[in-house]
Amino acid sequence: MAPFCIVLAVILVILQTVISSYLKRRGTDDAEVAGDASKIVTESIENVKTIQALTRQREILEDFRLASILPHRRSITRGLFQSLSYAISTSYSSFNFFASYMFGLWLCLNDFSSPFIVFQVIEALNMAAMIISTSASYFPEYIKARISAGLMFRMMRENPKIDNLSQSGVLAPIEGNIQLQHVRFAYPNGMKYMTLNGLNLEAKYGQTVAIVGASGCGKSTVIQLIERFYDILGGTLRIDGQDIRQINVRHLRSSIALVGQEPTLFNLSIRENIGYGLESVPMEKIKAAAKLANID
After folding, report:
1. Is 0.85 surpassed by the pTM of this model?
2. Which of 52, 105, 256, 268 could form a disulfide with 272 if both were Cys (CB 3.0 to 4.6 A apart)?
3. How many CB atoms are located within 10 Å of the residue 193 CB?
4. Which of 266, 265, 271 is closest to 290 using CA atoms?
């Protein structure tokens, strides 16, 4: 009697494990597939003013709809398997009772066992089944947690190509002579379109240089390359005659002051906002900067 019930329990547990493993693999793939739709939403929110100005709302909405079709279909299939997993876990005790009593009845009718022994075995196995079924009901949530944690840990283990925490690189004082020769660059999410294609630019120490052009021509891109938020795809970018990729990233950025088109103030004092990002700034320099900005 007991071996039969144990074999039945093992079969159900194996089935539950197989379904859970499949859900874990599928969940990882589904998260990657849904990334395109999420990217469209994120970019639309970040650039909502531009989208409204160009009246591209309908086109963006259509792009999002098309990007959501495949994730929607995959989510329906995943939901069916999750329902099957939940159904197996919740009906485990009932199915175990049914099979055990039917087999126990056959044993009693053929004088292989007594009703008392059958009842004892069934109740003992039923307690074990209840524990297993209670634990198994959390399997779908466990799989979701594993997938989410896996994505987070994978992101945390990634080594950035441009590491601002790296100790490597040249730490020589930066004077500020900038030279771009035949620079080619395209953003990672739009490699088909070259934002900069053969740009030549030189800015010497002490000079004031203005980059003028239409929206999207690459003005901000040049600044981002000088701060080394991205690496160029072709040509050379030198600072004081040194290839920018050979200069320590943290040292480079600490030597540059960038004021954005739409500056944002942190919920700190004016002094802390002026010196934000710098490890130690004398009060005299803070006051001098405030005076230059007419906020002293």
Report:
1. no
2. 268
3. 9
4. 271
Share of the chain above pLDDT 70, in %: 86
Residues 6+ apart with CB under 8 A from 96: 5, 8, 9, 12, 125, 126, 129
Residue 2's pLDDT is 53
The domains of the chain, with CATH numbers, are: 2-157 (1.20.1560.10), 165-261 (3.40.50.300), 264-296 (no CATH)
Contact call for residues 82 and 23 (beta carbons, < 8 A): yes
Take residue 192 and report the two structure tokens written for it. 């088909």
Tokens of 232: 């160029």
Written as six digits, the tokens of 293 are: 């900005």
User: How many CB atoms within 10 Å of residue 26?
Assistant: 17
- What letter represents residue 273's amino acid? N
How far apart CA 9 and CA 54 sit, in angstroms, is 62
Cβ contact 236:183 at 8 Å: yes
Which tokens in the block code for residue 182? Answer: 């035949």
pLDDT in tens, 132-165: 666 766 776 777 788 788 878 888 888 888 888 8
